[in-house]
Design a protein that fits this description.
mainly alpha
């Protein structure tokens, strides 16, 4: 019940104030967490199992680890897709090289 209440309050705040001014030093962390939100969502139960279940640390530490881990995985994903795009760019030049027309 309490979780649902928190989600409802957050949803109302997001709808009511979509452009809340933030101090300059907070903009980068906010954008990083927003960009990594899919990875945070996908991995948070795994972090909860490891940090809280296996290590016995408090749940709040598990949530912090999930946020930090999601940001790291997101950055690795971005790096990997950039590398794959660069490799594909080099390979596709040779695969799809225009051939001279024969008469």
């Amino acid at each position: 019940m309490l979780d649902s209440l928190g989600i409802g309050v957050a949803a109302v705040l997001l709808c009511a104030a979509p452009k809340v001014p933030a101090p300059k030093f907070l903009t980068m962390p906010i954008y990083m967490v927003a960009g990594a939100s899919l990875f945070i969502y996908l991995l948070h139960f795994r972090f909860l199992q490891v940090v809280n279940g296996a290590l016995g640390l408090p749940v709040i530490v598990a949530f912090g680890a999930a946020i930090a881990g999601g940001v790291v995985v997101w950055q690795l994903w971005n790096w990997g897709t950039k590398q794959a795009g660069d490799v594909w760019g080099r390979v596709s030049i040779h695969l799809f090289k225009p051939r001279p027309a024969t008469a």
